[in-house]
Amino acid sequence: MSTFRNPVGPQPASVYWRRRAVVALLLLAVIAIVVLIVIQPRGKSPNPSDTKQPKPSASQTVDPSKACAPGVIKLTAATNKSNYAPGENPQLILTLTNEGAVPCTINAGTTKQVFTITSGSETYWKSTDCQQDPVDANVVLEPNIPQSTSPLTWDRTRSSATTCNSSRPAVPAGGASYHLNITLGDLASNDVQFLLN
């Protein structure tokens, strides 16, 4: 006869059955704890302070740069050449340099740009004479890192607001000297001389 079903010992059978029940419950508790440990998600339990929204990374942060202070921005005018062959169109370049110590933002859009070409006391061409759909363009300037706009091509013609929809006369060439000046809002550039052949 099995001693499991009929406990043998000096105590009554009920004592042995109670002991077996306690051992079985303890065994079930250990198994339950092991199962919970195995299936519980990895990582520490949530901490109330951890429920805050994560801070955005540097690439997600909207640049908080303030508007550039007067006097910290240098505006430089340039042409891609100093001497142009017949039929060769000058490329006009605007460059901005933040000479301050911190990044700042400036509107460098075509709403603020004016390219002017003169010869002697006469103005031959202005970028705003026949400008269409000027736009704002806020640019963040890092300290001492020059940023240039895309070159603007001058077609070597005389401009005026009244000749936008008609052919315009070519300016004198054959070694004629011209000067480029650029303004951006209140900023004014250096003077750049170039020759048209």
How would you describe this structure to a colleague?
The longest helix has 27 residues, at 13-39. The protein has 2 domains: 1-52; 66-196, Intracellular proteinase inhibitor BsuPI (Immunoglobulin-like, Sandwich), CATH 2.60.40. It is rod-shaped. Strands 3, 6, 7, 11, 12 and 13 form a 6-stranded mixed sheet that branches. Strands 2, 4, 9 and 10 form a 4-stranded antiparallel sheet that branches. Strands 1-5-8 form a 3-stranded mixed sheet, with no helix packed on it. The termini are far apart. It contains 1 helix and 13 strands, in the order H-E-E-E-E-E-E-E-E-E-E-E-E-E. 14% of the residues lie in helices and 30% in strands. With 197 residues, the chain is an alpha+beta fold.
What number is the mean pLDDT? 84
Q: Class by helix and strand content? A: alpha+beta
At the fourth level of CATH, the homologous superfamily of the largest domain is Intracellular proteinase inhibitor BsuPI
Portion of residues within helices: 10-25%
Highest CATH level, the class of the largest domain: Mainly Beta
Give me the Rg, rounded: 40 Å
The ordered H/E elements are HEEEEEEEEEEEEE
Main sheet record: 6 strands, mixed
Number of strands: 13
Summed up, the helix count is: 1
Through-space gap between termini: 123 Å
Whole-number count of domains: 2
The CATH architecture of the largest domain would be: Sandwich
- Low-pLDDT segments: 43-62
- Which word captures the global form? rod-shaped
Q: Determine the CATH topology of the largest domain.
A: Immunoglobulin-like
